[in-house]
Write a structure and sequence with these properties.
single chain; about 500 residues; alpha+beta; three-stranded antiparallel sheet; about 10% strand
């Protein structure tokens, strides 16, 4: 039998993983309590409880069974030296209260679906392991291979214009859909209160983070004082700056001295790409584990509550991914939009599974070069830059989320405030790190800019993980579209492989 293509294997793994996770789902009403009394340790599975009282000294907290997430956060917030003396009392209707002392652990139950998550985590860590040296090596070689500083500046300027334009388009699409569909007006008052209560404590910790947009500081912070520290801390903008600067400077150095340096980094880049081929062999298994664990832990119930909001974001992402990018590719290159989307399937599936543009970067570079025929000098410059500053999907989601939260609170955003969303979200996307979950942090900046209560992000926290997966697909597709377009406008021929 003919071996299935990689993207088909990943798609099958994704579907099977979702079904597996739904079957072996985590029961949110079940808590596991580990106790140690004297030399005896025991684990107790508590289910069917209606209220839980956590008493530490004179302090007492009471939770209902619908507040399982708050229970775990409250427990984790207790000092470790106070936990052994804390008393947990579970009340169940028609039953005697269950009381526990000497508690050493309080957690949700584990299922086979959550226990296989490490397989997916290993896959993401391997891709992240490749991403940083690949960005450094490929950008340096790409800048050096462009020949002169004028060419670097020309391609860099065109790339930035493309990224800023597609980001502004994405936000605008999101705002139009949010104003037409008005998802915030579909949420009942009871659902609003439940969501706010469930995720309020998570929100407070994020709001406490000092965030602001300062263009001058952003450019100053791009310049690393220690490039090795930037590499160690995965400071992507600083790595990009250092790599491009070093690549440009190498063009001024005599060939007998610059040649070995360029060849070393070129060899490093090729080695990283070969490592991608090796790591991708476990991709279907990793995708199965990641999706199964996510579905098992979070379930689909929360999506039902926010169905209009989720639909609004997903519709916007689909339009941006399957309409805007292919039309731009068609307008500025000779490539067929269908070919563009078809060849990117493996990239999009990895992006969906990992929720990380940085982790997907090695796969995106390899696909653009071998499948779309984009020359290495373009992919090595445009794609690492895109993975760092081009976050169209994240920006679109921020636009929809800002309007959604405003609608729930009864705010009517003026045209000026919505234009402020476009500007703020575009700038915020530049500073957004290419890692899972960071979009929710950047959303706080947008909400502050239009004076909408930041606490409103509690309304969307429950579905953020699922939407994070979807918007990463848009992010990486936009990066690939930029590479194809830059290759074409620079008069490179695109040799596509079927």
């Amino acid at each position: 039998m003919k071996k299935l293509k990689l993207h088909t294997q990943i798609l099958i793994a994704l579907i099977l993983g979702a079904a597996f996770g739904a079957f072996f789902h985590v029961d949110q009403s079940v808590l596991v309590v580990a106790t140690t009394v004297g030399t005896e340790t025991a684990k107790h599975e508590v289910s069917g409880w209606s209220t839980l009282e956590i008493q530490t000294g004179d302090s007492k907290q009471i939770f209902t069974s619908r507040e399982g997430a708050q229970v775990l956060r409250a427990w984790k917030g207790l000092p470790k030296d106070k936990r052994p003396t804390t008393v947990l009392t579970f009340q169940s209707e028609g039953k005697e209260p269950q009381q526990f002392t000497g508690v050493t652990e309080l957690r949700k139950e584990k299922t086979i679906a959550t226990m296989i998550r490490p397989i997916g985590t290993i896959f993401i860590r391997l891709l992240n392991l490749i991403a940083i040296p690949l960005v450094l090596a490929s950008l340096l070689v790409g800048a050096a291979s462009l020949g002169d500083i004028k060419k670097v500046a020309r391609i860099g300027a065109k790339t930035l214009v493309y990224f800023m334009t597609t980001t502004a388009l994405a936000i605008s699409i999101g705002l139009v859909l949010a104003n037409v569909i008005q998802p915030g007006k579909q949420v009942s008052e009871s659902s609003k209160e439940l969501l706010m209560a469930e995720y309020q404590s998570d929100v407070q910790s994020k709001i406490a983070t000092e965030l602001d947009i300062n263009i001058v500081d952003m450019f100053v912070e791009m310049i690393p004082t220690n490039p090795f520290r930037a590499l160690a801390n995965s400071e992507m903008l600083q790595i990009v700056f250092f790599a491009v600067l070093m690549g440009v400077v190498l063009t001024f150095v005599k060939e007998e001295k610059s040649g070995p340096v360029i060849r070393f980094f070129d060899g490093l880049a090729d080695t990283m790409i070969e490592m991608v081929h090796l790591v991708m062999k476990i991709a279907p298994y990793a995708v199965f584990a990641l999706i199964a664990a996510t579905v098992s832990e979070f379930g689909f119930e929360i999506i039902q509550t926010l169905i209009w909001y989720v639909a609004c974001v997903l519709l916007g992402l689909v339009i941006q991914t399957t309409v805007v990018y292919p039309l731009l590719v068609k307008a500025f290159s000779s490539m067929s939009p269908l070919t563009f989307l078809r060849q990117l399937k493996p990239v999009q599936l990895v992006a969906f599974s990992t929720s990380s543009s940085a982790a997907t970067l090695p796969v995106n570079m390899e696909t653009c070069e071998t499948k779309l025929g984009v020359p290495n000098s373009i992919t090595s410059f445009v794609l690492p830059l895109g993975a760092t500053i081009n976050m169209d999907g994240t920006a679109l989601y921020q636009g929809v989320a800002a309007v959604f939260i405003a609608q729930v609170y009864g705010f009517d955003l003026s045209l000026a405030e919505q234009l402020t969303i476009v500007l703020t979200a575009t700038l915020a996307s530049i500073g957004t790190a290419p890692v899972p979950g960071v979009g929710i942090i950047m959303l706080i900046i947008v909400l502050k800019a239009i004076h909408v209560p930041e606490e409103g992000i509690a309304l969307i926290m429950g579905v953020d993980r699922f939407l994070d997966m979807a918007r990463t697909v848009t992010n990486v597709t936009g990066d690939a579209g930029g590479a194809v377009i830059m290759a074409s406008v620079e008069s490179h021929s695109l040799r596509q492989n079927a």
